[in-house]
Amino acid sequence: MNTVSRALQRPSRSLTSQLCRSIRQHHHRAFPSPSASIATPHYTLGSGSPSLLRTSSYPTPSQPHRTFSHSSTTMAAAPKFARGMNKGQLQPELNSLLEQGWALDEDGMGVKKTYYFKTYFKAVSFVNVVASQSAAKKHHPTITVRIGSVDIHWTTHQPRGLTDKDLTMAQHCDEAAELMGAVEKDQGKKCGPSSPTPSSPGL
């Protein structure tokens, strides 16, 4: 009886061996070994480039390539001389005028400048001097008169573009403005309320 009892209490070696193998197989399926193959992105260093190149088969979103156009850059108008004009001869004269405060118009076919005066009378007197010179040269500008300033714009319509007449008359305008006492912009007469009349004594 004791022999049978000990046999029942002690498991056989074959049963123990089968149980251990079953446990190892279950553990292997639940926890794969570190050497198992896992699909991961692979990076390689491209030749001649400091950047990493992704060689994974995973799809990647396309990156938009942004380009910048230089056509939108705002640039000053280039001078456009009239047909038959000697550009090499007129360019130095134009450069001199630009240094004296003249500017090319939007089309580059004319020059313009604003003169400032302390009184409206001086502004009109300046216009009269320019008008006299224009009549003598048979070349007339576009003139805009304000209370303390005068806009002058010289261009040639036939042939269209800048000519020697425009540059010569622009120089005459500078001389006339100096003669009539032109001032800086902040000193020019401006529109505003008139000065109050002093009150009489006792009022």
Q: What does the secondary structure layout of this molecule look like, with pairings?
A:
Layout: H1 2-9, H2 13-30, E1 43-45, E2 52-54, H3 87-99, E3 103-104, E4 110-116, H4 120-137, E5 142-145, E6 149-157, E7 160-161, H5 164-179
Antiparallel strand pairs: 1-2, 3-4, 4-6, 5-6, 6-7
Helix pairs in contact: 3-5, 4-5
Structure characterization notes:
One of its GO terms (molecular function) is 4-alpha-hydroxytetrahydrobiopterin dehydratase activity. InterPro entries: PCD_sf, Pterin_deHydtase. By secondary structure, this protein is of the alpha+beta class. The chain has a domain at 87-187: Gyrase A, domain 2 (2-Layer Sandwich). Helix content is 36%, strand content 15%. Helix 3 (87-99) packs parallel to helix 5 (164-179) and helix 4 (120-137) runs antiparallel to helix 5 (164-179). The longest helix has 18 residues, at 13-30. The model is unreliable at 1-8 and 33-75 (pLDDT under 50).
Summed over residues and divided by their number, the pLDDT gives a mean of 75
Beta-strand portion reads: 5-15%
The CATH class assignment of the domain at 87-187 is Alpha Beta
Shape: flat
* Gyration radius, in Å: 47 Å
- Return the CATH architecture of the domain at 87-187: 2-Layer Sandwich
- List the helices and strands in order: HHEEHEEHEEEH
Q: Which structural category fits the helices and strands? A: alpha+beta
By CATH, the topology of the domain at 87-187 is Gyrase A, domain 2
Total count of helical runs of at least 4 residues: 5
Number of strands: 7
- What is the CATH homologous superfamily assignment of the domain at 87-187? Transcriptional coactivator/pterin dehydratase
Q: Report the biggest beta sheet as strand number plus sense, adding barrel if it closes.
A: 5 strands, antiparallel
Percent in helix? 25-40%
Distance between the termini: 146 Å
Question: Which residues form runs of ≥5 with pLDDT under 50?
Answer: 1-8, 33-75
Catalytic activity: (4aS,6R)-4a-hydroxy-L-erythro-5,6,7,8-tetrahydrobiopterin = (6R)-L-erythro-6,7-dihydrobiopterin + H2O
Region (Disordered): 50-71
Family: Belongs to the pterin-4-alpha-carbinolamine dehydratase family.
Enzyme class: lyase
